[in-house]
Amino acid sequence: MEVDQYTNVGSEWSYSGEGSRLPLIDESSALGPQAPKDRLIAVLDQVEMRVERLRRDTVRIEEERDSLLSTLDSVKHSELLSDISECDKEDITRYTDRILARAMTVEVAVRTDRDPQQEEALHQVNLYIDQLVMSVHEDAVIAHTRCQTYMNACTSQPDPASGTDKNFESAILGCTLDDQKRVKKRLQGLLDYFAKLNVTTCS
């Protein structure tokens, strides 16, 4: 595994790799080739890059956690359970619940600054998606079709066969760009889940 390294060259810090601690500022070396302001700006530039990378990594972890939860849900509702004995089914259920409990101990979040209108828009979007998820086990085909209309609202090249949900489109356009990207990835995860279930849209 590669480890980040900072090297103190004269009075300057140089950076290589990823994952290490940021350098401390050596205030005693005021006679370096860079002016004090430039040296401070250079450190802040590094901090800003690390913050953005931290946000990206956290979003990736959020997406991975959602994917794991979707997989566990598909296991709990798998048709394969009907082909095994009740004893084996209980074993599978206990195993799934144990993993689910462990997964729920992981809490990660990236906060996005929003104004009241953006907060309300995101609330509406989450409500639409939550209702969609709840409807999956009632009618997966209809849920898949609705999911595709939501995805069409998030892309510049929608699927003409399934159309676009205008209410969802209005809500998503009111969200921040970060939230729009996150919602689109969430919808793609749901579409991938439908694909695993071999669900098709309504004709």
Automatic annotation (TrEMBL):
Protein name listed in UniProt: BAG family molecular chaperone regulator 2
PANTHER family per record: BAG FAMILY MOLECULAR CHAPERONE REGULATOR 2
Gene3D superfamilies membership: 1.20.58.890
Gene expressing this chain: LOC106114245
Example of a GO MF term: protein-folding chaperone binding
Keyword terms, alphabetized: Coiled coil
Coiled-coil ranges from the UniProt annotation: 37-71
Example of a GO biological process term: protein stabilization
Source species of the chain: Papilio xuthus
InterPro entries per UniProt: BAG2 (IPR037689)
